[in-house]
Amino acid sequence: MTTPYVRLDKENAAVLLVDHQAGLLSLVRDIDPDKFKNNVLALADLSKYFDLPTILTTSFEDGPNGPLLPELKEIFPESPFIPRPGQINAWDNEDFVKAVKATGRKQLIIAGVVTEVCVAFPALSAIAEGYEVFVVTDASGTFNEVTRHSAWERMSAAGAHLMTWFGVAAELHRDWRNDVEGLGTLFSNHIPDYRNLINSYTTVQAAKTD
Amino acid sequence: MTTPYVRLDKENAAVLLVDHQAGLLSLVRDIDPDKFKNNVLALADLSKYFDLPTILTTSFEDGPNGPLLPELKEIFPESPFIPRPGQINAWDNEDFVKAVKATGRKQLIIAGVVTEVCVAFPALSAIAEGYEVFVVTDASGTFNEVTRHSAWERMSAAGAHLMTWFGVAAELHRDWRNDVEGLGTLFSNHIPDYRNLINSYTTVQAAKTD
Amino acid sequence: MTTPYVRLDKENAAVLLVDHQAGLLSLVRDIDPDKFKNNVLALADLSKYFDLPTILTTSFEDGPNGPLLPELKEIFPESPFIPRPGQINAWDNEDFVKAVKATGRKQLIIAGVVTEVCVAFPALSAIAEGYEVFVVTDASGTFNEVTRHSAWERMSAAGAHLMTWFGVAAELHRDWRNDVEGLGTLFSNHIPDYRNLINSYTTVQAAKTD
Amino acid sequence: MTTPYVRLDKENAAVLLVDHQAGLLSLVRDIDPDKFKNNVLALADLSKYFDLPTILTTSFEDGPNGPLLPELKEIFPESPFIPRPGQINAWDNEDFVKAVKATGRKQLIIAGVVTEVCVAFPALSAIAEGYEVFVVTDASGTFNEVTRHSAWERMSAAGAHLMTWFGVAAELHRDWRNDVEGLGTLFSNHIPDYRNLINSYTTVQAAKTD
Amino acid sequence: MTTPYVRLDKENAAVLLVDHQAGLLSLVRDIDPDKFKNNVLALADLSKYFDLPTILTTSFEDGPNGPLLPELKEIFPESPFIPRPGQINAWDNEDFVKAVKATGRKQLIIAGVVTEVCVAFPALSAIAEGYEVFVVTDASGTFNEVTRHSAWERMSAAGAHLMTWFGVAAELHRDWRNDVEGLGTLFSNHIPDYRNLINSYTTVQAAKTD
Amino acid sequence: MTTPYVRLDKENAAVLLVDHQAGLLSLVRDIDPDKFKNNVLALADLSKYFDLPTILTTSFEDGPNGPLLPELKEIFPESPFIPRPGQINAWDNEDFVKAVKATGRKQLIIAGVVTEVCVAFPALSAIAEGYEVFVVTDASGTFNEVTRHSAWERMSAAGAHLMTWFGVAAELHRDWRNDVEGLGTLFSNHIPDYRNLINSYTTVQAAKTD
Amino acid sequence: MTTPYVRLDKENAAVLLVDHQAGLLSLVRDIDPDKFKNNVLALADLSKYFDLPTILTTSFEDGPNGPLLPELKEIFPESPFIPRPGQINAWDNEDFVKAVKATGRKQLIIAGVVTEVCVAFPALSAIAEGYEVFVVTDASGTFNEVTRHSAWERMSAAGAHLMTWFGVAAELHRDWRNDVEGLGTLFSNHIPDYRNLINSYTTVQAAKTD
Amino acid sequence: MTTPYVRLDKENAAVLLVDHQAGLLSLVRDIDPDKFKNNVLALADLSKYFDLPTILTTSFEDGPNGPLLPELKEIFPESPFIPRPGQINAWDNEDFVKAVKATGRKQLIIAGVVTEVCVAFPALSAIAEGYEVFVVTDASGTFNEVTRHSAWERMSAAGAHLMTWFGVAAELHRDWRNDVEGLGTLFSNHIPDYRNLINSYTTVQAAKTD
């Protein structure tokens, strides 16, 4: 097996959110903006829900790249936030790597903008240092499908695990019985189809008890 | 001119939301669920914002079609709500038509699920009775692009105006100076790209006053 | 209004199925074969369900064009079946036109293969003779999207109503109360998403009575 | 009816092939080159087959626009060929209009490169002078789908009939019995799926006589 | 070779159908519902045809996820059916693994909803325990193409064989002479194009004997 | 004819560029940014080349909508530039309408961002006042294809002519002999394929004179 | 390197054409029929041109699968032709393997219909026996993109080289100087864009010598 | 790891531009011409910016393949330029390989037309000789997506790193502080969205100092 199964473990995983900034988001054209924003917030919410150590970083927040998505700042008011003074690869920033090491986690869940740079560079660096890297492909955006597929191929060839936020949540949770309502709420808040299922179900259930 | 310019007027327009029900939404496959839900709520919010008379109707809410989107009920707690006992074309329901007539409005903004039935039938009936009909295409959903384009063609050929929620809001508002913040908030809440522009702008503006 | 609303009426409508033959179906590439077959059979089933006069015709059934879909023969064993000896436009065949006139109906619902020839030619001829023509776009197939859109545009410009089988069924039925189970069964047999809604609903309902 | 049915008549139709030149063909990106070349040659072959008066014209054949497709010259060695000295709209060239008038035909079948200029301009001019114009959309090419749809919409709104080569052939032929083998060969030479049907059919037929 | 050829063997293969439930199916948007339902039933039918041990499992069948597709229950009335009380990865359920082991088979053919969770998790777990895993990609569905490709890449990198139902059937059957009619019927029931070929062929054959 | 042929005349046409602002451009997602920017500049260059009166207008240039594309300011340093204080429909701004009337032109070529608002509103208003309106569809951008097609349909139904920049240039120029080099340069600067044709041609020509 | 560079060598390569039959071609829907037929014939022509040993095989040619493409029989009248009596994997047929071995070649260029069965099975078998396998992806067709990508992934993971006919021709030829006209003719016959380049070039060249 | 992370180093990288010729560019149909030209020039500009040794090569520049893009000649007037007399694989040309070796670089950044031949062949040859190869996928073009994906798969399987020009620039630059203005200008010249961000930002900044 090229890349054997490594299972996400909520006691051993950390989340790295790289450069989800208002200006850079206008560069993202491989995923529709409504869906992309939802995916990024879903990843943030699941990180909060599973209480994973989360590290935020930005590049030139006070320039044209624009500020970090305000929603992310609100969700992670206490998390390490590393505005990089210039390093393009977040892994070249000592404070960032220190913050990662401080978590003590060996499984890194990474998402960012744009995929082939802000995600791929730290992902490849972390793999080279022995971390297991899980790229959240649908919370990472880039210019178009050519740049996306090239980035995915490069990361996958180096041993990164390609996942999406829903799979990450499911793999971390393991068993619905750990908390049916919590996971259900997470899904309901970010998957309209799922919310519809629940609405339909609870309506019939409610009628039943009448 | 086949269909001359008729300009939406907030003193003369009403909104009809037809069958946005949890079950029926699973039939919608011509627009992505994240985007579609956003469009429907954007239309609801703009109707509220412009204080337009709004009429809600459903088909068999207590059967497999499922309940009306709860968000719509919350936004319009006082609006006429007509659960139809069986009429497929809402215009065949006397209460519905009475509610429309009670608004005194002559411009009807219609959206619903599915486009070729729940939207097209009342739209065509209303045109036949002399109303000006504005179909909100992006808040109306259906099975696929073939059904969508057939429905658009039929309605357009009968004289319906095809619009989208953003155009409806802009045409109703006329001038930003009527309320910059209100319209800006509406757009910011439903267009991630627009919110990013505002976030970037206000960040630089804030820095400027430091 | 270019093409005013004409409402399908089950007492005044007939169905014309033109050249749905095994060989010709291999020419259809604008709709996926699974979906296309389903749409054609859905149209046939609705015609049966509403007891509409239905006329079948083929072109060179014993040559490379192949036999009529056997399912259609089974559904309409008693319907007029006109194998045309050579006329490309079915309306050029006297027997076919006689069969149409014999129905006494003035609303013609037409579908066939391929759209720009076998559907468009009789549709245009019928309009020219004063019939109201309703083209079932999703039960009509052709080579690609260019041929399809050109055909739709030509027919629509001449006054044809573009519809799909689901809209036809809904417009004919008018009111669910006429027969909830019958229409529900029709939809359930041809719309997997709808069947899922019913399955989910009845499961919860059944549990409720336990 | 906006554009009533006008039926192509092989005694009253002429074909205009405008600027199918080697260089200009590299601008065509709305149809795949294999398919586009096939469509153009199919239109040429059908024109030959039905013995329609055909007029060829080019724009700056000895400059970067390149020579007329050699196949067209071979198929129509005797047809009027008008290399225009500069007029972009072929209808502005007196020799071209003279050649059209000399045919005595009132139905003009037009195709060319690029759709919104070389096809649309003479098509609109001819309509304005009272001709019935049939645009062969799949033998006309342009830069992309935006340019194509804009051109189709402009021509259709002015009364042009949008058709494709297969429909043109079928409408001109009227009845297979006029010449089964001739039309079958035309289709077999330009529709691989049709050729396959014939090959399969004749193979079984041949086996049958063994 | 990363993943050497392992050939499916009907004496050594078992089929695992994971969470094809009415509610969850509304989440599937990477394959059209008509086609997806057909693929799932084709896989079920081939499993029955080759008499493969088949295991069914569901997640919260009495909640919003909805009941197992009734057709699957009808096809496999005697097969092990494991409704999981909460485990997301079916492989975490002891009864499920026991049922797998009880088959004595070492080749596992897996399909389910959604691909990146209900299929990928047990597939990766089974590979890790030494099974050969064959994922039936077209009988597995998920939210969109991003989630699908990420899941495929993760499974393929771990050594899973990506196949589709038609390839599975062909690889298991080995030689048409084992049963021409049986395999032909399977294909005819689930591939409209194939059924058309057979209809055309038998029609000519029949004529031949007249 | 619904919309008869009206031919662009360089003595009677004016160009209106509406809201091509840096911020608003990030909302445009129905055309790729490289291509869209090229189309807008091509329209500007052709307006300059044909010496057409050109009017620029913006909405809130000093807010989040951002400044007018600097390239447009450079190309039209002397043209009327109307920053609107709040009117969404440019035609509601008296200065803008005055500037239009001051040109004395009756043919208005309009492009802008976004199509269904900034283009459609003044286009519809101008038609209502008797102008001939030519919408440059490929120099106008919007959120997605649903918003685009709805806007096109509404404008076309009201009598607007849908064109693209290449067609506008060709229709204004009429005859290459008016200025071969000038038009060739315009095309070469904005159509890479055309520039390649010229490069290849001139290379061989140059070799020929050696 | 997972799959190191192996360079096609015209002294060591053979071509296997598997099941390009008239009936089976109607199953191919992942490539347009015009393009697919062209690709298959291009591969046949290049095999002829480079004088590669070529082996043809079919499955049930006298049943619904239909006869081999007649063009292939004409191009390879003397080549081994193995109509398989039932084996689905051609490699299971002893005559076929004997014919392969008789060529003495170790590089096998394979194409066929459908990709995941008729191509993948013998490709995987040949790799397992030590051959270098080059799959010609664009001369191999299947039902849809899901089946195609699954098949590509399976073959690539097993060590197959994915190529297309143009690359195969170029790699075999090595140097244009071996025969400029021959290779040019091959490309010109199967790539319309290339033929246009040559036509434009030779036209200017010819003018030069005048 | 199949292909471990190798980081581009501006002291160790060279750029190879293969066959970006005017004629061959008309064969490129997997990327839009506006975007493709921009990508090629962006790669050239970044090579210049980072002062990387750059080698240009062409195939039959004085024949139908056409001349090298003039812009490339202008950007690299002093770079080695190797017009190949016939070798299809540039690596078969001794002068080309000598030029590569003369750079002393071990990381080769390659782009060209068409991807599966002019890029893939030298890329595979260079890998076989121990170079690290970085393919710039978006500055390499080919006939269609089938040829592209096959070429990517073959190169990736052999150990090539798939990148795009933006990622190459970012990886070479390492840290914005090395030269903010230089890299910003490069991006601004080739990414309209990025230029818009800068324009919006500097406008507000400028206003701030008023």
Can you give a write-up of this model?
- The structure is a homooctamer of 210-residue chains.
- In chain A, 47% of the residues lie in helices and 14% in strands.
- Chain A has 210 residues and is an alpha/beta fold.
- Chain A folds into two domains: 13-174, Rossmann fold (3-Layer(aba) Sandwich), CATH 3.40.50.850; 176-210.
- In chain A, α2 links the parallel β2 (54-59) and β3 (81-84).
- Chain A binds chain E through residues 1-5, 7, 31, 137-138, 152, 156, 161-164, 166-167, 170-171, 173-178, 180, 191, 193-194, 196-198, 200-202, and chain E through 2, 23, 26-27, 29, 59-60, 63-66, 85-89, 92, 114, 116-117, 120-121, 124-125, 127-128, 143-144, 146-147, 149-151, 153-154, 157-159.
- Chains A, B, C, D, E, F, G, H: Residues 14-165 form the Isochorismatase-like domain.
- Chains A, B, C, D, E, F, G, H: Pfam families: Isochorismatase (PF00857).
- Chains A, B, C, D, E, F, G, H: Keywords: Hydrolase.
- Chains A, B, C, D, E, F, G, H: It comes from Limoniibacter endophyticus.
Concise description?
8 copies of one chain form a homooctamer. By secondary structure, chain A is of the alpha/beta class. Chain A has helices at residues 33-49, 70-75, 94-103, 115-128, 145-157, 165-173, 180-190, 192-209, and strands at 13-18, 54-59, 81-84, 107-112, 132-136, 161-163.
Please name the defining characteristics of this protein.
homooctamer; 2 domains; 210 residues; 8 helices; Rossmann fold; globular; 6 strands; alpha/beta; hydrolase (chains A, B, C, D, E, F, G, H)
